[in-house]
TrEMBL record, chain A:
This is Pleckstrin homology domain-containing family J member 1. It comes from the Eukaryota. PANTHER family: PLECKSTRIN HOMOLOGY DOMAIN-CONTAINING FAMILY J MEMBER 1 (PTHR22902:SF9), SESQUIPEDALIAN (PTHR22902). Residues 15-108 form the PH domain. SUPFAM superfamilies: PH domain-like (SSF50729). It comes from Mustela putorius furo. One of its GO terms (biological process) is receptor recycling. GO terms for cellular component: cytosol; early endosome; recycling endosome; trans-Golgi network.
From TrEMBL, chain B:
Forms homodimers and heterodimers with PHETA. Interacts with OCRL and INPP5B. Forms homodimers and heterodimers with PHETA1. Interacts with OCRL and INPP5B. It holds the Pfam family PH. This is Sesquipedalian. Its main location: other. InterPro entries: Boi1/Boi2-like (IPR045188), PH-like_dom_sf (IPR011993), PH_domain (IPR001849). Residues 20-124 form the PH domain. The lineage of its organism: Eukaryota, Metazoa, Chordata, Craniata, Vertebrata. Belongs to the sesquipedalian family. GO terms for cellular component: clathrin-coated vesicle; cytosol; early endosome; recycling endosome; trans-Golgi network.
Length: 149, 260
């Protein structure tokens, strides 16, 4: 799959929802925990060597599962291969919870579901579609019917 | 120079998953392996799928592997002057150094317009903006509803009369003692009070406007129910007016923000 690395690199420089130095271990057998600067930007998790400006890599966070691992750690895996885990080690339980919460909310699909929920609730309470003011009430992405579990 | 890693397999799975596509269609595209650095010729016709803030292309509708990915953050979508007098062309332009625009062309004016609109609103940032706005509207609606219910119950059961709307003094000065000299708290009022307090707890932003204008010492930690009664009684009409204007009034400023 072709993509422009520079687009992703530019994205990695955008303001982050969360950024911290964490221990990180890839999903391959025998991979070692390494210190990485981890940065959450929109629905991507970028990870950098601590002394480098460009990211080593990025994880798209759609359809991911975030699981607590041992004390103060968590893993990210993806729906199509739940055993293949990216491990992260945090400095404290509090930091771990903060990251887990942020990562679970970090997908476009999560926001879409939230939007549909709010739209529905507001419509029930007020009888008005709140998306009309944005001119986007007809768009497919915001329809209740388009939502699948 | 090492290539940046990406969880491509997961990205491809997302592209093919049955989560809703936000827009699909055939577009002509330029660029790709073996093509000239600047767009020329009629381009290559591919099947495009927009999901969230990701634009995928496929060789055909039935393909099981995306050809390309464009991440739609920090970009604008503009109508373009295509090569070779191409019609219905548009470009995805990034504000980043060394990132060339992606040139695309639709089959007709309606498709072009639909794509430009969809791509302009595809960013995560835009979605987040809309979600936050709705969140705030829902909080206001809930609070307003709680107050409205509360005031209805108050009208049914209470001896406390609502103050005139232009009265500015805080509740404690209105001649009622802090203790409950209003109608005794029965089950209806208890529910109303509970709802009002829940509404208060959820609703932080606009509450500060109340504080500035009213300087009520009783808000929001008061346990003096009668004080709350009178105070809300004054505010309900005003609140509803403001809320109605905000939620239902036209908002031309917003339309400008999400243009291409």
């Amino acid at each position: 799959m072709r993509y422009n690395e520079k687009e992703l690199q530019a994205l990695s420089r955008q303001p982050a929802e969360l950024a911290a130095e964490l221990g990180m271990r890839g999903p391959k057998k025998g991979s070692v925990l390494k210190r990485r600067l981890v940065k959450l930007v929109v629905n991507f998790l970028f990870y950098f060597r601590t002394d480098e400006a460009e990211p080593v890599g990025a994880l798209l966070l759609e359809r991911c599962r975030v699981t607590q691992e041992e004390p103060s750690g968590f893993s990210i895996s993806f729906l199509e291969d739940p055993e293949r885990k990216y491990h992260f080690a945090c400095g404290s339980e509090a930091q771990c919870q903060e990251w887990m919460g942020a990562l679970r909310r970090a997908s476009y699909e999560f926001m879409r579901r939230s939007l549909i929920f709010y739209r529905n609730e507001i419509q029930k309470m007020t009888g008005k579609d709140p998306l009309e003011q944005f001119g986007i009430s007809e768009e497919a992405r915001f329809q209740l019917g388009g939502l699948k579990a | 120079m090492g290539a940046m890693k990406l969880n491509e397999r997961s990205v491809a799975h997302y592209a093919l998953s049955d989560s809703p596509a936000d827009h699909t269609g055939f577009l002509r595209t330029w660029g790709g392996p073996g093509t000239a650095p600047t767009p020329s010729g009629t381009g290559r016709r591919c099947w495009f799928v927009l999901k969230g803030n990701l634009l995928f292309s496929f060789e055909s509708r039935e393909s099981r592997a995306p050809l390309s990915l464009v991440v739609l953050e920090g970009c604008t979508v503009e109508l373009a002057e295509a090569p070779v007098s191409e019609e219905f062309a548009f470009a995805i332009c990034f504000d980043a150094p060394g990132v060339r625009p992606h040139l695309l062309a639709a089959d007709g004016p309606a498709a072009q317009e639909a794509w430009v609109k969809a791509l302009s609103r595809a960013s995560f940032s835009y979605m987040r903006l809309v979600v936050r706005e709705l969140e705030s509207q829902l909080r206001e609606a809930r609070h307003s509803l709680a107050l409205h219910r509360h005031s209805s119950w108050k009208a049914i059961g209470s001896h406390c009369k609502p103050q005139a709307p232009d009265r500015r003094s805080p509740g404690l000065e209105n001649g009622h003692s802090p203790s409950k000299d209003c109608s005794p708290v029965d089950s209806v009022e208890e529910r109303g009070s509970k709802l009002a307090r829940q509404g208060l707890a959820e609703w932080q932003g606009p509450a500060s406007l109340f504080l500035d204008r009213r300087q009520s010492p009783a808000f929001p930690e008061t346990s003096y129910f009668s004080t709350l009664h009178n105070w809300y009684g004054q505010e309900i009409t005003e609140l509803r007016q403001r809320w109605l204007r905000r939620v239902w009034g036209s908002q031309p400023a917003r339309e400008k923000q999400d243009g291409p």
